[in-house]
Queue: 2 jobs
Job 1
Amino acid sequence: MKQSQTALILRIMSLMLCVTQIQAKDAEDPEHDYLGSRWDPIHFKPAIDQASDEQCLKCHQEIIKRTTQSESPAGIKSEESIAWYQTNQNYSGPQETFHRRHLVTPEARRFMQFKCITCHQGHDPKDEVSGSSETAQSGLILRKSVDPDICLMCHGSFDYKVMSGLSGDWPEVAAKFENDCVTCHKEYRTVRHKLNFLNEYEIENLQADESDLCYGCHGGRAWYAIPYPYVRRPWLQRMPGALPEWAKNRPTNYDARFTK
Amino acid sequence: MKTPLDKSKIKAAVKRRKQQVYTPVDPVQQLGFIHHNVDCIGCRACEIACKDKNGLAPGPRFRRVSYIEGGDFPDVYAYKVNMSCNHCAQPACLPTCPTGAIFKRQQDGIVDIDSSLCIGCRRCEAACPYGAPQFDPSDNLVKKCNMCVDEIDAGRKPYCVMACMMRVLDIGPIDQLDSASFDTTAIGPNDKPVKQVKNMADPKLTNPSIRFIAHSKGNVDNDNS
């Protein structure tokens, strides 16, 4: 009984110490305490559209610093594990956290040019969850700070249903086309990867080395059950007349946020 | 005697099976949640029951009641959207897991995560369109709602459902929830369950096993239920 009372007093004392420390820290820089920072103009439009990675990482550096554990509590070694989509040949390197994989790993630096603001568009502190207030910034989805449509651009499923001549998912039909996407795509969809978060040159080069590596992103790393409705530019020479049903209502240009 | 594992063989097999296609588990029966957005008073008893059951510290919230408020006087409105893991028919989290910690049960479609196999890469957290996987900074692992599988196996309902004082949250077979034929207090006599409400990610992404009775201001045009 006495022991538990002493423990309780000790805990209260340490809590009080913590509170004093937090207060002291706040007092040092009242502009940038946690609650104050949430209202920093950089989290709102228009400033968020111009925010640099350095500005974001000044406070959010833990997303780069934090790495995966070397092994799970049950002893699964992270260097020996591999996810479904990591069986693609163009996946390399050890297990890394999601953010590092998109920003700082050698593979990310080679093929991608993601900035924080490619996916994140700030947050409205008035929203307890994103999109819950009517004045909330558009493009945010209930309970998620990133619109999954952005993920869908690279993590959608393989859209074989709209590709004439394909009877199934790529692994089923690849042999028929000698594992070469460019057999057809030297004529179709010739404007590729001209987006500001991709290294267009490196991606096209990679494809030249191994011709079906396109599948790595276009279906091979599918998170979602649906494909991304890529923009459709008219193929007037090849397909005069009406657009096919699936291409109706598709935009002909990407959101200015993503174009170079 | 147990034969030692030849890891080079496994690696060769992985190489051979490049570009694996993941086929989602097709459960015998898919359980799903139903939530009445209008009658929910937002007391958050479900959240607390969930945290209690799962022993969660402040921070990770397996179940979240979202307060949606808007409008101009006098035409103002408020409703609640209550989500945890939606135990999707085609979960996005499952194929992203490098250690196989995430799995979907054959008998009832519950998507569970074995946190003892988790290395904290947080891919599942990013892939989920509904924010279900929760990162626990106290042990750097990801955890999430498992619909209280132990309770389900014991023939009872999850803690959140049992704690709901308004009886607006329930679970049931998803096909019966869709047709509103499931006997539950979460669906009123003239209510029509919908798959999506305003500001929620497209249900076609993963086919989440959740239905809502939407508020008139929370209805979305492209609902395909």
Job 2
Amino acid sequence: MASLCRGFVSFDSLFSIIPILLIVSYALFFSALLGARADAGIEKQILFDKLVSASDYAVKIGAAKSSGGGFPSGKVEPNLVPAGVDYSRLAGTLGARLRINLTIGFAEDGFVRSGTCIYRLVVYEPDMNVRKLYFCGG
Amino acid sequence: MQLLESIISFAVLLSLSVALSQGTDSGVDDSLYMYKLMGDAKNVIHLKGGFADLGAGNAAGNEINRLTGLCMEMGQTELTPSLRVAPGAASGPALVPVLKPAAGYANLTGIVRDDFYFGPCMGN
């Protein structure tokens, strides 16, 4: 009789432990998934903020029209972009500083957008048209 | 009975995990970017002579709207029915800027540089 009781206890434990193990393993897997998703979201936000910072420097100083000598006496026109700006060089410098793979260009000039992209509004000096200057990073 | 308990527990856990996974799927915070774009819009309007000539300002605003799909509103004012009382000053009706997101176009009715809406288009 005592051995029969022990058998029932063993079966009882078995049927309790298996679901508990399954639930615990699922909970662990799901928490890891949530953590990975949060990390990806943070990385995406950081990249976006870096693009905003890089674009802000570019439209206000890096690619903006300057006249009257160099810094600090020179006058800079924010959001006014002259012709002949070397965007690949500017993207290389800013990308190296911010540790991202940055590309900059106008859609009108055949710029191919890839990765996360934002645009800034500028006036293109040669024709004084409003244009979207794209900043893409990854 | 234990099988039933485990099924119920698993179902509860599953629904909880689905609810949690939907809650964490938040997008990128672009408030700083939109603020910068608003500055761009102001600078572009300035460069196009829009602060000296409202016609040029509206033309620039509509050009920006065509490019971005975003709307802007600036400088609309209304007379408040209430009285604005400053310490030591006489009370009287006050003109306050009222910004209503423009529906699909730029609506620059005056020069109030600090009160400027630039963002998604909405109905008036």
